[in-house]
Amino acid sequence: MSAAAAAAASTARRAFDVEEVRRDFPALHQEVHGHPLVFLDNAASSQRPRSVIDEIARFDGHDYANIHRGVHELSQRATAAFEGARDKVRGFINAADRKEIIFVRGTTEAINLVASSYARPALNLGDEIVLTTMEHHSNIVPWQMVCRERGAVLRVAPINDRGELEVDELVSLLSPRTKLLTLVHVSNALGTVNPVKEIIAAAHERGIRVLIDGAQAIPHMRVDVQDLDADFYAFSSHKMFGPTGVGVLYGKQDLLDAMPPYQGGGDMISVVTFEKTFYNSLPAKFEAGTPNITGVVGLGAAIDYLERLDWDAAIAHERELLAYATERISAIPEVTIIGTAAEKESVLSFLIDGIHPHDVGTILDRNGVAVRAGHHCAQPVMQRYSIPATTRASIAFYNTREDIDALERAVRHTIEVFS
Ligand code: C6P
Question: Is the pTM of this model over 0.90?
Answer without folding.
Answer: yes
